[in-house]
Amino acid sequence: MKGGTAVKLSWMGKNREIVEALIHYCNIYAGVYRTEKMSFRGITYSYAQIQVLEYLLENEERGENMSCIAHRLGITRSNFTKIINRLSQKGLVEKTRMTGSRRDINVCVNDLGRVLYEDYSKGVLKRHFEPMFRSLDKLSDEDRAYVRDALTDAMRRRTANLPEQR
User: Fold this and answer.
1) C-beta separation of 106 from 95 below 8 A
2) What average pLDDT does the chain have?
3) How far is Cα 150 from Cα 133, in angstroms, rounded to an integer?
4) Residue 51 · residue 64 · CB < 8 Å
5) Between the N and C ends of the chain, which has fewer C-beta atoms within 10 Å?
6) Residue ranges of the chain with pLDDT lower than 70?
7) Are 108 and 56 in contact (CB under 8 A)?
8) What is the pLDDT of residue 109?
9) How far is CA 61 from CA 58, 84, 89, 99, in A?
10) Among 3.40.50.300, 1.10.10.10, 1.10.260.40, 3.30.70.270, what is the CATH number of 29-160?
11) pLDDT tens, position by position, 78-102
């Protein structure tokens, strides 16, 4: 630093490198989250769209409506609706009315959506997550629980004071 001394922030203590790596990873992910840069059989899609497909596939038995799913994913209902509409236009999900109410809509992943997600998950595992998982495999189950709890607790505290999403 010209004319001064760089200040090393100490408030993170020994966790500084972990927090820095997590922030770096999240910033890269956030930068491409909504961009439709991935492709499968001529269908382009984004990480936001694949995240919704993943949630729907993992939670099919819940039979949740769109508002509930948006809340559980931590995104606004309007953004969730936009994502679902894009996925529907691409032929990856199907919407049905649950009770005849215009607002009570159930969304499920169709066969094409399942095939797309299977293709995506194989590729992302190999390209991105296998190296991370190899490092995480060195943690004991107890240490893994500590890391999970630290991230979960931090997010719970962060979102507890946010206004409810509409």
Assistant:
1) yes
2) 84
3) 18
4) no
5) N
6) 1-9, 98, 100-103, 155, 157-166
7) yes
8) 96
9) 8, 18, 24, 17
10) 1.10.10.10
11) 999 999 999 999 999 998 876 766 6
